[in-house]
């Protein structure tokens, strides 16, 4: 997946500046920090929403900068425009898109449950508050009845939009927590006087059980993670990385994958028990799906099902309706398999549905749904739910089609032996899509799916570029840390260069390379002698039965693969034939190359710092780590290719400057990326995790010493951080037999209204979330 994070775009904000606290700071017996007066203030006379005159308002927190965990009141909101694309659909296609969108939105609510124990209840509270009152009426109540300032009411709106956009109270890009930018007592006073709370007194109980969690900034609650590194609901709260390793070995022993399950650990009579809970509508045992309790390495395991049941029931109902409007038998078969998977918990059924999806070439309406990307599972195995519905953009798709047609000529140009490439290139579909609906924690710019290794290698995959996401992301860019001349080049060519990088990243990045594996009959999918000869001094190994790339590379799998795909994009963007496909020749082509490399390095040197945690010395985002690694590789190459330095800015203050010598990209740069890319592919193909981890850790290190002390520069860089943009998406609604598109204004009120009108039966949604809270609370709180 290709996430947008270039030049302040699609970046989740973090700040490195710490709060200065006045005297009056106290800790109670539970480690609660009481904040009275905070010296640092914003323009409204408050900081982080905690007024200068707040009376000993307590929140659980560690020595953290509160500003790191709030969204600014100036949060940018942009529309994801798809009106023209939707208008060109037939009535049948609109109906198909409508029901698929409904299924996606219902399924996207699963992400709340996958994010934190409190996220589902928090969403339900906010959704009901804004569903029963208009924003204007609530504003009048807040200012006139509750005594809030306009900034404090704006903070409520922005926080609500943040929860909606990220599908939870943790940022989807960086995994850091989001808390409201006003004091808990003020938020509570506002909530209790709304119509929603007046009409449904049970909401008071819901709020009381989660309010401490909403504001909790204790070390474990600041970020997503496993054990003492953070919080997660992919594993019960008593699990550690050691538990994840045990579970991974169990999965390998029974040849099971983790995409659609969670783990619950309990103790009984001195025996540790692990319940592997599959996502499904149905509950109870089922042959071939569930497993009765069985011993493994001194522990007891069982496989059950029924996770997210009430939400998946809503998904299945809409997928059934969508089948009536499918354009061909392949789409019917695809949806049938998805329905079976979500109903029974069978991952194999979802794989079968994905096989049909791969074979459904060039549909007008493109869609995919399920437990897909593993970025947010601390173990790198469990998929977050997402669903998208989009309309094909024929003009840009034609360019991608030409790239696909030439792929067999471009693959041999990659810097690894031919033995590391698949025996037969399976030409994929590659389309540019205007997104109608994208549910989940965030919207990427490109996707290469399915992620199932055996399907990708033996049957094929699809590449998707989400065309209307890219221009929406590049509206009103703020660019720092490069020269004025470079800024102008980025503004001029950023969109076109990014389309090029997305195409190469998805098609020839994620779509290249072979995994060496041992077959069930003991044979291998590669020729031992020829591979040995091509590897030289590198170790020859392979994936054993039951192992996948994700399961073997686990915690580094996502970032390592994104790094490999990014490197392929950089490497092949130097090719004249590739550039011509996208309409770039002559001086413009050279500018496109320069902007492509410069953009990625700018992200790797500056934006990436927002997603590095200096306290735990860990990375919080796969793409950011990947780009930082590439920067370090090119800095190591030397010869003046890339320069980074602390400088004095035009305002006389310390600043940071990145420069790239465009005359050395095709020589020094290409050689450095080529050598690194060769190693990335060899270690991935051979499953050599040990060598991969050592190499990747070396380039991932953020040092406070040496010629490039990014750990020291980090606070300087973060002074100019920018919030990521929030996308307002359209809705569809039925008016008799016709489907109408509902569009909204590009502001926080429009974002909230879009969610108010997203569900015809919101009470069913709130009931489902409440049911799931009670089911999960004993294990995840």
TrEMBL record:
InterPro entries: Dipeptidyl-peptase3 (IPR005317), Peptidase_M49 (IPR039461). GO terms for cellular component: cytoplasm. Its cofactor is Zn(2+). Zn(2+) binds at residues 505, 510, 562. It is an enzyme of class 3 (hydrolase). One of its GO terms (molecular function) is metalloexopeptidase activity. Binds 1 zinc ion per subunit. Keywords: Acetylation, Aminopeptidase, Cytoplasm, Hydrolase, Metal-binding, Metalloprotease, Protease, Zinc. GO terms for biological process: proteolysis. It catalyses: Release of an N-terminal dipeptide from a peptide comprising four or more residues, with broad specificity. Also acts on dipeptidyl 2-naphthylamides. It is found in: Cytoplasm. This is Dipeptidyl peptidase 3. It comes from Daphnia magna.
